[in-house]
């Protein structure tokens, strides 16, 4: 998220200090505290006025009328995207710990090995570490064919290199519905040739972005139809998701003040025990652009689609085998988490696992 145009340097300094203070103390922040503890070179009156404007803009809010202010999810998002400086010492620390404590020759990149990695990540972060077990790489696509089977339906037949066949039924799109059978058959054969020329020999997880661009260039009128086919193909041939997530660090996170009440503890335990399938699909959900750029994905509070995750932030990244994503590593913590530490930890752990599995 780009920084809003009205956040000048003064506003940014005060917002950064307010977020950092709340992350460090879990205490709402006021102008006197910022003057006393941060070298902002700004008067208390100016800071007080700026805090009020930041609250009106939605970056901060007051839990009580007499209290100081704390960051909103939107405030954290602006901080993470624009104001935070990652602590690269964390990168060095976890790389050193992983190399010192783990020997891939001993653990052979098995479940015990991942348990150790998750334990190290949880200890260093102070939050809950999640690692999905690696998924088996999918078979390559061998042949794809579109066949009309009724006046209103098409069968999309997909054969993998082990000669297993899957078929997907799709409705004939409105742009093709008025073609006679011969004309439709010719178009379906052209589409089949296009799909084979671009996808044959590729894994479903390794479809290049150029395929989508060529759809727009060569078949602009049919791009929605063909993109829909590729989406259904991905859904049908998606790797079977492992039923297990390795979880470490529950005792670490319970030391945070957010979990001083039993209600919050029960909500967290319920999330990890009863909604593990939903949590798993969430941390395995990666936009293609982020996979190609090896970026860390960050969901803060209400940005999480799971309601039970609205009190937490989730930071996660994919790990790969020969550049093909096979699993995910992530951290769950309160929205008041040390993002400048946690993001480098997740990124470095994902890179380490990618090297080990490749």
From TrEMBL:
Record keyword Transcription present: yes
InterPro entries the record matches: GAF-like_dom_sf, HrcA, HrcA_C, WH-like_DNA-bd_sf, WH_DNA-bd_sf, WHTH_transcript_rep_HrcA_IDD
Heat-inducible transcription repressor HrcA C-terminal domain residues: 111-343
Key words of the record: Repressor, Stress response, Transcription, Transcription regulation
The keyword Nucleotide-binding is annotated on this UniProt entry: no
Domain of life where this protein originates: Bacteria
Stated family: Belongs to the HrcA family.
Free-text function comment from the UniProt entry: Negative regulator of class I heat shock genes (grpE-dnaK-dnaJ and groELS operons). Prevents heat-shock induction of these operons.
Xref: NCBIfam families: hrcA
Listed name of the protein: Heat-inducible transcription repressor HrcA
Gene assigned in the entry: hrcA
């Amino acid at each position: 998220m780009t920084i809003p145009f009205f956040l000048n340097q003064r506003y940014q300094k005060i917002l950064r200090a307010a977020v950092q203070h709340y992350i460090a103390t879990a205490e709402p922040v006021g102008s006197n505290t910022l003057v006393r503890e941060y070298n902002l070179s700004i008067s208390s009156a100016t800071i007080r006025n700026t805090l009020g404007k930041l609250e009106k803009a939605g970056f901060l809010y007051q839990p009580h009328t007499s209290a100081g202010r704390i960051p909103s999810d939107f405030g954290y998002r602006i901080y993470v995207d624009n104001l935070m400086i990652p602590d690269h010492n964390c990168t060095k620390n976890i790389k050193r710990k992983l190399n010192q404590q783990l020997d891939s020759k001993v653990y052979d990149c098995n479940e015990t090995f991942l348990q150790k990695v998750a334990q190290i990540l949880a200890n260093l972060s102070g939050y809950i570490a999640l690692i999905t077990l690696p998924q088996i790489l999918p078979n390559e696509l061998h042949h794809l064919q579109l066949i009309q089977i009724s006046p209103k339906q098409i069968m999309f037949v997909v054969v993998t290199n082990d000669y297993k066949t899957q078929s997907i039924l799709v409705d004939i799109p409105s742009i093709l519905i008025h073609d006679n059978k011969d004309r439709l058959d010719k178009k379906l054969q052209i589409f089949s040739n296009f799909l084979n020329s671009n996808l044959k020999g590729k894994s479903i997880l390794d479809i290049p972005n150029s395929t989508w661009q060529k759809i727009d260039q060569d078949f602009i009128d049919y791009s929605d139809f063909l993109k829909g086919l590729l989406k259904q193909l991905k859904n049908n041939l998606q790797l079977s998701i492992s039923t297990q997530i390795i979880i470490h660090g529950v005792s670490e996170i319970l030391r945070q003040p957010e979990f001083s009440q039993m209600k919050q503890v029960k909500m967290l335990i319920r999330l990890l025990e009863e909604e593990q399938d939903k949590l798993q699909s969430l941390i395995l959900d990666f936009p293609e652009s982020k996979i190609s750029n090896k970026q860390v994905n960050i969901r803060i509070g209400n940005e999480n689609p799971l309601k039970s995750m609205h009190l937490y932030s989730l930071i996660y990244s994919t790990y790969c085998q020969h550049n093909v994503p096979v699993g995910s590593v992530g951290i769950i913590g309160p929205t008041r988490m040390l993002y400048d530490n946690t993001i480098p930890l997740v990124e470095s752990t994902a890179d380490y696992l990618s090297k080990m599995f490749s």
